[in-house]
Hints:
Elements: H1 2-47, H2 56-65, H3 69-78
Helix pairs in contact: 1-2, 1-3, 2-3
Amino acid sequence: MGFVIATTKRLAEWTIMDQLIDLLPILIPFAILQLGLMVAALIHILTHKHYRFGTRLMWILIALLVSTIGPILYFILGRGEAEEEEDE
């Protein structure tokens, strides 16, 4: 009886693994997009000093911890206007 239960658990695990493997073509581009957005947001946050809302630390934490939505929120809400350089 124990052998049947162990075999059934293994089959269930393989089924889940097979489903994950089937989803990889969707998950890999999504992970690359997420990483690219996060890197772009972090570069922009670290190279600019002015933000519409919040501080640099707040936007770094949001970009890192809120997954894909964090960098998008930064580009929509937090990104400050570009400063115009004045020629003197």
